[in-house]
Amino acid sequence: MSNIFMGIAWISGAITWLLTIYYAFLNWGLLAALAAFFLPPIDIIFMFMLGTWQFGLVAIAAMGLAIMTSKD
Question: CB atoms < 10 A from the CB of 9, how many?
Answer without folding.
Answer: 20
